[in-house]
Amino acid sequence: xxxxxxxxxxxxxxxxxxxxxxxxxxxxxxxxxxxxxxxxxxxxxxxxxxxxxxxxxxxxxxxxxxxxxxxxxxxxxxxxxxxxxxxxxxxxxxxxxxxxxxxxxxxxxxxxxxxxxxxxxxxxxxxxxxxxxxxxxxxxxxxxxxxxxxxxxxxxxxxxxxxxxxxxxxxxxxxxxxxxxxxxxxxxxxxxxxxxxxxxxxxxxxxxxxxxxxxxxxxxxxxxxxxxxxxxxxxxxxxxxxxxxxxxxxxxxxxxxxxxxxxxxxxxxxxxxxxxxxxxxxxxxxxxxxxxxxxxxxxxxxxxxxxxxxxxxxxxxxxxxxxxxxxxxxxxxxxxxxxxxxxxxxxxxxxxxxxxxxxxxxxxxxxxxxxxxxxxxxxxxxxxxxxxxxxxxxxxxxxxxxxxxxxxxxxxxxxxxxxxxxxxxxxxxxxxxxxxxxxxxxxxxxxxxxxxxxxxxxxxxxxxxxxxxxxxxxxxxxxxxxxxxxxxxxxxxxxxxxxxxxxxxxxxxxxxxxxxxxxxxxxxxxxxxxxxxxxxxxxxxxxxxxxxxxxxxxxxxxxxxxxxxxxxxxxxxxxxxxxxxxxxxxxxxxxxxxxxxxxxxxxxxxxxxxxxxxxxxxxxxxxxxxxxxxxxxxxxxxxxxxxxxxxxxxxxxxxxxxxxxxxxxxxxxxxxxxxxxxxx
Length: 680
Hints:
Elements: H1 2-19, H2 38-41, H3 59-62, H4 67-79, E1 82-86, H5 93-99, E2 110-115, E3 125-130, H6 133-174, H7 177-199, E4 208-211, E5 221-223, H8 229-233, E6 235-236, E7 255-256, H9 259-262, E8 267-271, H10 278-290, E9 292-293, E10 312-313, E11 317-322, H11 324-328, H12 332-341, E12 342-346, E13 350-352, H13 355-373, H14 386-400, E14 405-407, H15 410-426, H16 434-443, H17 447-461, E15 470-472, E16 474-481, E17 491-503, E18 511-514, H18 519-536, E19 543-548, H19 561-573, E20 576-578, E21 581-583, E22 586-587, E23 593-594, H20 599-608, E24 613-617, H21 628-631, E25 635-639, H22 642-649, H23 654-666
């Protein structure tokens, strides 16, 4: 016994020293953000590759950055409570749900059998037995039927022999050969007829093993995402020989279990649960409440619709996953049931950039490599060296979109790891290196990034991007693609904006915006007009304001607000704008510059287009995590208000100075306290 204890401690100690050693003695929420650059920090980690990293045995311990959700999973498993799990794709929801099975008792697993009902053929009987017993019952039943059939055959054969002997004797005494022939024919026909009749119903009395388990097997994890009604709730197959008497298939043999039945004593996982129809969610609620659900034919035109089994056990734990929209569109009673008797969890999309969490991400890389090596097809990918691990960590920093954070979009990072490993396999390399990761980044670009790159190429080919000189009413704005795609890796594009002001000629002026703007973007244009009126004193009712996004489509959001405001003010005042400059930011009606998303991708897009100066909201400065190759190419200027934007964007003149000073007097800034503003 002592040897076993020592062995278990030895197995745990490497993991403890890896993540919870003296260097990480404080709790995670108290761990300070690591200020050391990744490329320097990774050199001090005591490994040569991911092969040296210990991996926990339990799946729940392999989940990265979801400590609160892991605790909920453990508690829900112990108390058999349902869970609503909300979060972005690829953050570990399905892995957490799968890990719940590790805490469920194996000894409660059951086999479910369905029997023929002699009293009512269309209402099969249902019985449960301990796991592994169902197969033995069927084997024993088949063996018994086989013995009975052999005894019947022997008895019939014995009778045939006696009758045949009597027939031969009668023929010898009478000398009638025809009697022998005719009698032999009747004897053989009678033998096969009686054998068929006596054994006809034997197979029909064998029960069907509806749900099968083996002893000591893990409790089931059933992923029912995107299943149809029959696959989710069970079904009864149509019998094409239903009118054929002996040819008909017994009703109990046509009963098929649904995911709710196969998940009995285990976990039922449904992602994007809002995709289920309301009647299916209602049936799911019944299965949860009653812990049993009868199986009937789902097609009312099928012969299976006549069959309805006895209630089949459905004692499962439901994990309903999705984003906020999915949960809001759930059946109210179903969600109420889970909220009242279970948990609701919002999974993290990022985690603090601490030393402990950096080590956890290293472990994630190792886990992905090990999982790839367990595949039965394809070649295993090699482990990653220290430098390549560092690049993966930097990618996690960049994709978080926030300084001091690490992305938990682990499915995306896993894709990058696998592509890098595939490149190493292609070269027959023994280890995955930094060069493989760099090449993988270029290959693993999302479709939005590929579209954005081609868009930038087209802009360059047709000289749509102006990055030199100065112009009135024209500004280089910045936008992103993929903001609503569920991806963390935004794709930036340069968004030229042009404005022109013309007299209204005796009628009320209009704001005319073209270029594929969404409703939100059009509303932003209208709001900007009010801001311009307040700040410049020009009544737009006397003018037509034309705003154009040349060569662009599907412009969404309000991140181009300061871009449009600058273009309109430039057109009103006749002041030129520096063209080697781009900007992004939202604008309040008081002239404050508000934060936006995808700032790093926007800056990189500007750098690719040869633009050297970028204006961003000051509150976004902490989110700037651009690739090293772009850092020396651009000058990022943070601003708080529209007058600061114009100060940097407009070309210097007395009129510019006067305008900026005028605007500064009327703009209400949120705070002028320098201590509250991030430093550049």
